[in-house]
């Protein structure tokens, strides 16, 4: 695996594995999700035989390919730009299909079952170009597409937001914009059940183009919109919800010099008021392409930088909840590498996808990186002490074993689980607040039924923040011999 190596070393995350996928032509991963079964599904496009097709690949948590699917809209080029998992564990992929002349493009969505079998596909378009740049699932089982349309009288792009039901039927669509170009690049369902779309506008604000966020209710009705800029040329590429009901938005802003751009991140509250903004960059081109809220309520941003080695490289930044940079790392090969999306998994790992340049073929391949937490902050960790059984090797003369555990934590616990021989036997152990115990503040007591012979007991602790790591997911392997009875 020659594609990725860390160029700097001061990182809170470390590389777990990296993978490239592709053929002889241009292949690019644009989006990624973690599925209910803890798999990783990557979507983008592949180019072969003068055709460009959706390409969806499912990987195991360890990066092994489980299945792959290419999907072609006949006589059209097709590029996937967003992916969501639905409540029934099916997958919906959204993107754009366009004739090889690149005129009269349409939004294209495809639904697959969890094994990659196509269930249906639908196109939406007008007389001129329409494109889907992002997709988000909604709490009613449907989803929302966001992008732009040129199917208006002035042929300038307008923000386009479209609600689709679970069967792929359009419920409503709304256009937002003015006399100049306006494009949506990101969309989320907000905590109040509404919709927020982010991108850029050339019709409002001071400058050539600026960050623009439009907030709608669940029916697509406008509630508010705001522009945000610190320069005359800015564009929002990505957006994520925050745990305090706000939004964090990232993209690029014009820096000093003709070809200098910097990575720009802003945080706004649920009404659109700016809480903070941060800019990071060097003497060349930096841009944010993906963002997610992290386990500690800070943020992880992926993007690219050309200031480090004068070529595009994966750039991953960790910010605290106020937007201050805690660390950053650059990952790349000997040529051009470009990330498009980042997610945090249920176990607080990061998955970043994009494209990497393949020198020998003079083309690009899918690039997938998985990073794991190297060190958790001490105040997020839990300490667990098993009091019964207290020893790593114990003998038991009964099939019913009472477990007593003492947990010391500064966080509210989400659950304590018991596993016996790698099978879940207690999904939510009995926890008691221990005010009188000077050693621990949570006491856990429950019972497991042993099997004949040797037993292996595992205790898992996860707090409300969702921190799962080697230290917080504390495991005691106890070999318990059952005596005949």
Q: Going by CATH, what is the homologous superfamily of the largest domain?
A: TolB, C-terminal domain
Class of the largest domain, according to the CATH hierarchy?
A: Mainly Beta
Span between termini: 54 Å
Query: Per CATH, which architecture of the largest domain?
Result: 6 Propeller
User: Count of DSSP helices?
Assistant: 0
How would the blueprint of this fold be written?
Blueprint: E1 5-6, E2 13-21, E3 27-34, E4 40-48, E5 51-59, E6 65-71, E7 77-85, E8 91-98, E9 106-112, E10 118-124, E11 130-137, E12 143-149, E13 158-164, E14 170-176, E15 182-189, E16 195-201, E17 210-216, E18 222-228, E19 234-241, E20 247-254, E21 261-268, E22 274-280, E23 286-293, E24 299-305, E25 313-319, E26 325-332, E27 337-344, E28 350-358, E29 363-373, E30 382-388, E31 393-396, E32 400-409, E33 413-420, E34 423-426, E35 430-433, E36 442-449, E37 454-463, E38 478-482
Parallel strand pairs: 31-38
Antiparallel strand pairs: 1-26, 2-29, 3-4, 4-5, 5-6, 7-8, 8-9, 9-10, 11-12, 12-13, 13-14, 15-16, 16-17, 17-18, 19-20, 20-21, 21-22, 23-24, 24-25, 25-26, 27-28, 28-29, 30-32, 32-36, 33-34, 33-37, 35-36, 37-38
How would you describe this protein?
Mean pLDDT is 83; it is low at 7-11 and 468-485. The chain contains no helices and 38 strands. The protein is an all-beta fold and 485 residues long. The chain is 0% helix and 58% strand. The protein is globular and about 80 Å long. β33 and β34 (423-426) form a beta hairpin. The protein has two domains: 12-373, Neuraminidase; 378-482, Immunoglobulins (Immunoglobulin-like), CATH 2.60.40.10. The strands form nine sheets. The chain has a five-stranded antiparallel β-sheet, with no helix packed on it. A five-stranded mixed β-sheet has the order 31-38-37-33-34, with no helix packed on it.
């Amino acid at each position: 695996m020659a594609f990725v190596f860390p160029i700097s070393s001061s990182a809170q995350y470390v590389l777990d594995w990296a993978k490239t996928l592709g053929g002889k032509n241009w292949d690019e991963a644009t989006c990624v999700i973690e599925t209910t079964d803890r798999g990783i599904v990557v979507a983008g496009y592949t180019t072969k035989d003068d055709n460009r097709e959706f390409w969806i690949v499912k990987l195991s948590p360890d990066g092994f390919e489980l299945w792959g699917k290419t999907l072609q809209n006949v006589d059209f080029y097709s590029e996937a730009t967003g992916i969501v998992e639905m409540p029934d564990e099916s997958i919906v992929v959204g993107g754009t299909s366009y004739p090889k002349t690149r005129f009269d493009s349409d939004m294209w969505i495809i639904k697959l079952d969890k094994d990659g079998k196509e269930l249906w596909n639908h196109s939406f378009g007008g007389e001129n170009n329409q494109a889907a740049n992002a997709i988000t699932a909604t709490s009613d089982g449907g989803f929302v597409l966001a992008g732009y349309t040129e199917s208006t009288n002035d042929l300038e792009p307008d923000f386009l937001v479209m609600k689709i039901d679970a069967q792929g039927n359009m419920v409503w669509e709304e256009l937002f914009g003015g006399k100049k170009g306006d494009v949506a690049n990101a969309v989320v369902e907000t905590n109040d059940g509404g919709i927020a779309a982010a991108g850029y506008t050339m019709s409002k604000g001071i400058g050539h183009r600026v960050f623009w966020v439009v907030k709608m209710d669940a029916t697509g009705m406008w509630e508010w919109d705001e522009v945000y800029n610190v320069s005359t040329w800015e564009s929002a590429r990505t957006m994520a919800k925050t745990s305090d009901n706000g939004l964090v938005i990232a993209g690029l802003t014009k820096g000093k010099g003709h070809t200098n751009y910097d990575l720009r991140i802003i945080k706004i509250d649920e009404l659109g008021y700016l809480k903070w903004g941060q800019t990071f960059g060097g003497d060349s081109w930096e841009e944010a392409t993906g963002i997610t809220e992290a386990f500690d309520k800070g943020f992880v941003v992926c993007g690219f930088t050309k200031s480090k080695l004068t070529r595009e490289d994966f750039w991953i930044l960790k910010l605290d909840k106020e937007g201050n940079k805690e660390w950053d790392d650059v990952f790349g090969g000997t040529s051009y590498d470009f990330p498009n999306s980042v997610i945090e998994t249920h176990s607080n790992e990061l998955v970043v996808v994009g494209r990497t340049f393949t020198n020998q073929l003079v083309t690009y391949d899918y690039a997938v990186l998985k990073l794991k937490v190297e060190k958790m902050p001490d105040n997020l960790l839990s300490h667990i002490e098993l009091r019964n059984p207290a020893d790593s090797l114990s003998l038991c003369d009964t099939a019913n074993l009472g477990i007593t555990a003492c947990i010391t934590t500064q966080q509210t616990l989400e659950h304590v689980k018991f596993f016996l021989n790698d099978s879940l036997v207690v999904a939510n152990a009995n926890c008691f607040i221990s005010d009188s115990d000077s050693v621990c503040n949570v006491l856990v007591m429950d019972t497991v039924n042993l099997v004949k012979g040797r037993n292996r007991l595992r205790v898992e602790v996860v707090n409300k923040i969702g921190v799962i790591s080697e230290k917080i997911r504390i495991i005691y392997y106890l070999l318990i011999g059952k005596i005949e009875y």
